[in-house]
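Usage example:
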Amino acid sequence: MTDRDQIELDNLLAQTALMKPVVPQDLMARVMIDAEQVQPRSNDVARRGIWASVLDMIGGWPGVGGLALAGVAGLWIGVAPPVGLESMATTVLGSTQTVDLFGGDMLGNFADGLDG
Amino acid sequence: MTDANDPSTSDAALLAAYAAGDSGAAQALAARLLPGVLGQATRMLTDRIEAEDVAQDAMMRLWKIAPDWRDGEAQISTWLYRVVANLCTDRLRKRQRAGSVGMDQIAEPADPTPGVAEQMQTNARMTALSDALGQLPERQAQAVSLRHLEGLANPEIAEIMDISVRSVESLTARGKRALANLLAGRRATLGYDDD
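Running the assembly step on the lines above writes:
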């Protein structure tokens, strides 16, 4: 490659860079037909809008994943609390209290009812 | 409400309006963007019909991505430069595989009028340049065309191609050397020896 090759290439690139085609009307028409064909319908926009809003609110799909993970972790801690959780709660809250959600003998009464 | 005819309305706002069902926004956006898209494709391909196909294809991709476009992540013009460059290099590759009209196959001008002959020679040289771009590695061809045909600055090209400025410099330098070598082998058929 000589300097002359380089100069000729530079001239050719500069000449080509000057090409500024006018957009033909039929191309513009085709582009507009395409735009109309794939334009979201108002129902699509509304439906997507609700889900997009919900997703945006919680930070998109990563947010959904985080939410699910937090839910599973919460359930697990509820079912099988790690050793020391109670003493930690006592330390933080001062005291713990056990609440029997079903009342004293509710399950026993229910079983009796089934028997007879 | 987006004013499609207001020049200060951003491309992204118009695209969002289009996605929300405003057909006037599509018209305004096409009027703004299509000339640049067609120009880039024409300069890379030097073939009117192929360039129009690429321009239509690129705009179709824009319409389709409209509902998912996130304002602020990228400029629409930057995104379009990338799409058109990719579509053009695909076309150039296909042209190479199909056996392009090489310079040896280009007929001599039938009309010996100097102006016509000169124009045909210019066209032949531009076609040779386009074919030579098709023989370069894809990234080199894109970097060279964005730098020397579109006249973009290296940082802008880096953003379009998602690479560093240093990589752009390297790609354009290697691409230009390769182009010069490819065209040097065609000096006689391109009429450079007669100049």
